[in-house]
Amino acid sequence: MNGWVLALALLVFGLLQRFILVRFGLKGLSYQRRFSRPTAFEGEDAELIEVIRNDRPFFVPWLRAESRISPHLRFGRQDNLSVRGERYHRSIFTLRPFQQITRRHKVRLAHRGAFDAGNVSLTVGDLLGIGGEGTELYTPARILVYPRLLQEEDLPLPVSRLQGDLIVRRHLVSDPFLVNGIRGYQSGDAVRDIHWPATARMGSLQVKTHDYTADTKLLVVINAQMTENQWGELMDYEQAVIERAISIAATVCVRVLRAGVAAGFAANMPLDDGETPAIDPPERYNAREEELLSAFARLKILRCRNFLSFLDDLSFLRGTDILLLSAYESESMAEKINQLRFHGNTVTVYRLEKEGNAA
């Protein structure tokens, strides 16, 4: 008889705790997740930080947080963490009354892109694991992964030479309107550079020194087609070729910007989920490097305009150094390039190969 009473009591207790936890378990719970940094470069590490808090006087036996995450975000092995097929991320928590738990998951950023891990499914369950109550929520967890920047020795020769020519050319031409200091007169200094107030003050001839002109500008153009008549999505191995082109473009833009040259890029690919080609004319200002890297991270490898027609969209360019990255060359493309040259632009073509070597 006592056994039946005990069994009945356990049954009542089990049903009661299940009712309380399933009915009220999600109330009073708060969950947030974020990345430890808003931006990073491909190949670097970051942390996905989860913070969950139980603000009620109830013990929560288990709570599961699940989300679908890009396979390009690689998680290491960790207790209470399960990643299935490198796509589904699952964390399990046990919470005491009024407890807060913070977990940090190391993530290897294996690919360029804009990633959002904010959609989460929360499920709370009872002690016996019989049932659960779930909800969906969104918490901002975004990270922008810039393309990998190449070392000087990894840049293909025509690209490296163009980059050097641009930097040298900029430092050969001084701008008479950009005065960056004053020094003593030296033989050969122009009379127009004499700074008379400073001369009177110092008692000896003083001349103005000038900064260098910023007229030099570079536009890197990326062709997302592997052949002249290609249409539709690229195969994985073809996308790898375009990814390398994006890394080359980002590296060159960053290097010339740091040398004082205006930089920009264009591609017959859209940004994010847009439908128009990306065209960002050369400019130079303090936030320009971060702006360009962000745009490169958001590039979607999808041809949204025929490349020959796209070259017509660049007919507004004047006096610009153009680096064209393409997997092929053709007579039709050569005609379009000559039109760009006719308007005072210089055009250097680098032919992309699967191995990353110049043709």
Descriptive tags:
single chain; 359 residues; alpha+beta; 5-stranded antiparallel sheet; 5-stranded mixed sheet; 35% strand
- Tell me the span between the first and last alpha carbons: 90 Å
Query: What is the ordering of alpha helices and beta strands?
Result: HEEEEEEEEEEEEHEHEEHEEHHEHE
Content of β-strand: 25-35%
The CATH topology of the largest domain: Rossmann fold
CATH class category name of the largest domain? Alpha Beta
Count of DSSP E strands? 19
Which sequence of strands runs across the widest sheet? Answer: 6-7-4-10-11
CATH architecture of the largest domain: 3-Layer(aba) Sandwich
**Low-pLDDT residue spans:** none
Biggest sheet statistics: 5 strands, antiparallel
Oligomer: single chain
Number of helices: 7
Q: Please tell me the total number of domains.
A: 3
Mean residue pLDDT: 82
User: Which structural class matches the secondary elements?
Assistant: alpha+beta
What gross morphology would you assign? flat
